[in-house]
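Exercise 7b. Backbone tokens:
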């Protein structure tokens, strides 16, 4: 299953996220991803505490078998000993869009 997900999901997603649910209909595939419980590297060893998840983000990816594919991503929030809340930084969506980076570059190549 992991090998198939590696082919379907954008590059390096499974390194940082785990698939928690997949819902399919005749028109779309919704893949729900939660960030793994790994604190931001720049704060490791500083006693950060996981404080749940931020609001989910939906990203449209390449269609599969005539169905739209949406990734619903939940990123973790981390609280520093100072009380500040931080998150890992990921570049899953292309800047200014709700498309995966690969899908946006593909569309840009076709549409200009």
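Sequence design result:
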């Amino acid at each position: 299953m992991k090998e198939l997900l590696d082919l379907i999901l954008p590059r390096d997603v499974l390194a940082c996220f785990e698939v928690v649910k997949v819902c399919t209909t005749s028109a779309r595939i919704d893949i729900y991803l939660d960030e793994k419980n790994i604190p931001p590297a720049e704060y490791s060893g500083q006693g950060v505490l996981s404080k749940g998840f931020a609001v989910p983000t939906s990203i449209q990816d390449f269609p599969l078998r005539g169905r739209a594919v949406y990734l619903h991503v939940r990123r973790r929030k981390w609280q520093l000993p100072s009380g500040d809340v931080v998150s890992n930084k990921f570049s899953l969506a292309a800047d200014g869009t709700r498309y995966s980076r690969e899908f946006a570059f593909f569309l840009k190549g076709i549409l200009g």
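Instructor comment: Residues 2-111 form one domain. The radius of gyration is 16 Å.
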